[in-house]
Amino acid sequence: MIAGLHPRPGERRPPVPPPAGPARSGEDRRSRTSVRAAGLLLGAASLLVAGALSLSVGTKQIPLDDVWKALFSPTGTENDAIVRDLRLPRTLIGAAVGAALGLGGGLMQTLTRNPLADPGLLGVNAGAAAAVVTAISVLGVTSFTGYLWFALAGAALAATAVQVLGGGRFATPVRLALAGTAVNAALFGYVNGLQQWDLNTLDEMRFWSVGSLAKRDTDLLLTALPLLVAGTVLALALARPLGALALGDDHARALGTRVRRTRVLSVLAITLLCGAATALCGPIGFVGLMIPHAARAFCGPDPRRLLPFCALFAPVLLLVSDVLGRIVVPPSEIEVGTVTAFLGGLLFIHLVRRRKVAQL
Question: Which intervals of the chain are annotated as region Disordered (predicted)?
Fold first, then answer.
């Protein structure tokens, strides 16, 4: 008999541990589920806090109990007017625009497989700016409602141009990035040239082009809302095929994904989301760059989870940035686009310096 196969009389063999693989896999799944649940709770709580701060903090500080009364039992006081007429539309637009930019950023980074990609890479911001500056200079448009439609049209045309130059139905992530860079450079050159030629256009464009939530009303939001909803529904519907596409074109086709259609529809969703957001508030950069990185810490890279997390976290960033802009240099304000550019620039430098940026 071979020694060790049977215990000696009176000897107790130590218990054999269960196989580590399945148990560890189950523990990992439970851990990931717990992290995602914690992320959802954190995002929801942060959004409530950010919304409350946006309604309460400003040139005039309004206590939260007065904010509550202004929303649900107004009596016609000055605080009621400030909350209902100024800060509530600003908060709602900030939440909607933030969610759109976050979704657009998640889509763009998944589509191009580039952790440094931003929705502006498709020419959305440049196209909107070129259309608005043309409307101001040539047609004399001065209202935000007019800006809205021209910005939407410009964003759609620029995104279509990028798609066509990138290869149309045969576009690849690299071609899209190169085409977007070229279109952005050409359109922003046109914008700068027209502003220098027409000083009135420069004055009118200055406020819109920096990106701001101020002086917008709910009528603008209602006008753009159908486009935002359509872009959101389309983005979430594309989550599963985008997850397959992230494995590579060949793997995606093997899983039954229509690669070309998925890319074209993704570009359409980004155009609807970011075009409407840019039309509402002007070009606000870096939100679509920052938020997907924060969301991945809770949900990983799977677009089915990443996109909803982006839509939840992005409004928090935009509203908090807007609040910071109100309190840094009172009684003046720093526009939200400037604050997000500062924060995004710091993150961009950090990401570029990381050795494993290609694995994000």
Answer: 1-32
The residue-averaged pLDDT of 254-277 equals 87
pTM, rounded to two decimals: 0.84
pLDDT digits (tens, 9 = 90+) for 48-87: 999 999 999 988 899 999 999 999 998 889 999 999 999 9
**How far apart, in Å, do the first and last CA atoms of the chain sit?**
56
* Alpha-carbon gap, residue 156 to 136, rounded angstroms: 19
φ, ψ dihedrals at 276, nearest 5°: -65, -40
| Dihedral Cα 287, 101, 216, 342, nearest 10 deg | 10
Q: Is the pLDDT of residue 185 over 60?
A: yes
How far is CA 185 from each of CA 26, 112, 189, 192, rounded to the nearest angstrom?
50, 19, 6, 11
124-134 and 144-165 helices, crossing angle to 10°? 130
Distance CA 58, CA 73 (A): 21
Q: Residue 134 in contact with residue 150, Cβ under 8 Å?
A: yes
CA atoms within 13 A of residue 160's CA, in its CB half-sphere: 7
Place of tokens 């509530």: 88
Please check the confidence at residue 210 and state whether its pLDDT lies above 90. no
Q: What number of other Cβ atoms are within 10 A of residue 74's Cβ?
A: 13
Mean pLDDT of all residues belonging to the chain: 83
Q: Which residues contact 34 (CB under 8 A, 6 or more apart)?
A: none
Q: Domains (ranges, CATH) in the chain? A: 120-281 (1.10.3470.10), 284-360 (no CATH)
Quick one: three-class SS letters along 39-95?
HHHHHHHHHHHHHHHHHHCCCCCCCHHHHHHHHHCCCCCHHHHHHHHHHHHHHHHHH
